[in-house]
Amino acid sequence: MAKDTFSLLNKIKKPLFTDTVKRIVLWDIAIFFLLFVTSNVFTIVITNKILTDNLDERLKNEVETLLGSFVIRQDSIKFTGYSEIKEPNFTTINSGAFFLQVYSIKDKLLLSSDNLKSFGTITFNIPDIKSKYEFANLTAGNHQLRVIYTPLMNEQNKLAAYLQLSVFRTEYSSIMKKIILFNLLNLPFILLIIVLVSIFLAKKSYSPLNKIISIAENISANNLNARIKYDAHPQDELGRLRDTLNNLFTRLEAQINQISQFTDNASHQLMTPLTAVKTELEYILKRDRAPEEYKETLTMLNVQTDKMISIIKSLLVIAKYSSNTEEYKSVFKISQVINELIKPVFKNQNIDYEIGGDLYLRGSYEGFQIVLENLIDNAIKYSPDKSRVIVRAERVDDNVKISVEDFGTGIIDEEKEKIFEKFYRTASSIKGSVQGYGLGLCLVKTIVLSMEGTIKVEDNLQIGTKFIVSFPLINII
Ligand code: ADP
Predict the structure, then answer these.
(1) Do the beta carbons of residue 138 and residue 145 sit within 8 Å?
(2) Where are the alpha helices (DSSP H) in 14-131?
(3) Cα(276) to centroid of ligand 1, in Å?
(4) Residue 230 and residue 232: Cα distance in Å, rounded?
């Protein structure tokens, strides 16, 4: 019930637009708006160009017809196309009207169309004519004009006069005005659409992220074994987020399990020596004792303290290697570890080493040292005095096989699996005089697994036990 209320509160508190969504929406609006303005400017420029080109083409065609009506000899100019310029386009002022003026090079008006009488003269700026046709925009009163200039040449290709032909740009201006007005009127609607589309896109693009967040929120310390299930390619951003979070949960789960296991085991196992210490102290403090008795108690305290240190050390090493961190991993040579670190420890023991060639392993060489030390130590501990132990390392297919063989008490089949459990000791060793805490083989197995290896125990052929550890072979080129 309380949990339901809490999750309900969570839902109510969630804002409609988070800061991130607002930011994205604003960016989207800015980008869409910029695109809208750019596309409008582009449309206007292109339309302007098309319309101007059309006017220019019309002017050019008309000028080409008129040019055929001029006969120019030396300084005399004769115009034969009066019928042409008597047409309505040259005599009236309609939307398609042509205004014609011909000026001499001395700026004297030689010819003009009839409609100019009522329209008035059009400014004639003798143009800097670089090509056959020059175009310009002119304003005459309230009217916008498009003008073409062309030189009239005599037979010797000498400039004799200039021809100017003009048309209205009114139609063109009204089209442009209509486009701009249409866009301005539509702007509020377009803005509204842009805002709505931006919100939709922002919400849509964040919805998978929100889904992942809500799954992650549901994974608490109590159900750390749950994982985010979201269908996305591992290279995809959301796939990477899912994998990163899942890996994080895996690491957290391992760490939390480790801590709680360590706490459980340590408190359980330390209870025995601590109780022994407490009982002994209570007994000795009851009254005054002889110095020997104090000495005896202190010796006992020392033994129990050593026992506690040893237990804690082993538990810490187990915790370190169960976390499977890359930190301790490197490539090392088996013979080097055996010659430099193992042989000196067991120098007075009856141990035969049979190491086949240069074999390498990947992992922690310190961990590997702990594995060998524990297996050899057990082989010696659970065998008669001076009994032989064989340590063998060889390549078998793609693996390196390391065995520690003894000729001691052996392990019955029912206990072969259990001996790897934390604090497990076989019934015979509990009864016997060999000291131990049942942590060595658990430690060995944890390290072997952290190096991607396997471990098994077999009966030795004649008598005793054989531990076989196998690791993937590392090829050094
Ligand atoms: P410890 O030796 O401290 O008791 P281990 O975890 O090293 O703890 O070993 C667990 C148990 O497995 C031992 O108590 C012992 O009974 C048994 N064991 C281990 N190695 C051997 C061996 N080489 N021969 C016979 N028994 C063994």
Answers:
(1) yes
(2) 19-67, 88-91, 115-119
(3) 24
(4) 6
State the Cα–Cα distance between residues 380 and 383, nearest whole angstrom: 5
> With a 6 A CB cut-off, is 441 part of the ligand 1 pocket?
yes
Residue nearest to atom 19 of ligand 1 (CA): 378
Instruction: Give the residue extent of every domain in the chain.
Output: 15-67+173-217, 71-168, 237-320, 325-472
Which of 307, 314, 376, 378 has most ligand 1 atoms within 8 Å of its beta carbon, as the pocket-test mutant?
A: 378
Q: What pLDDT score does 57 carry?
A: 95
Among 195, 182, 194, which residue's Cα sits nearest to residue 36? 194
User: Top-level CATH class of 325-472?
Assistant: alpha beta
pTM over 0.85: no
379 C-beta closer than 6 A to ligand 1? yes
The CATH-assigned architecture of domain 237-320 is Orthogonal Bundle (1.10)
Residue whose tokens read 């115009």: 79
Token pair of 442, please?
């658990």
pLDDT at site 267: 79
383 lines ligand 1 (CB under 6 A): no
Q: Across residues 257-272, what is the average pLDDT?
A: 77
What's the pLDDT score for residue 19? Answer: 84
pLDDT single digits (tens) 178-226: 888 888 898 889 889 888 888 888 888 888 888 888 888 887 766 778 8
Looking at the domain covering 71-168, what would its CATH class be? alpha beta
Selected residue with higher pLDDT from 298 and 273: 298
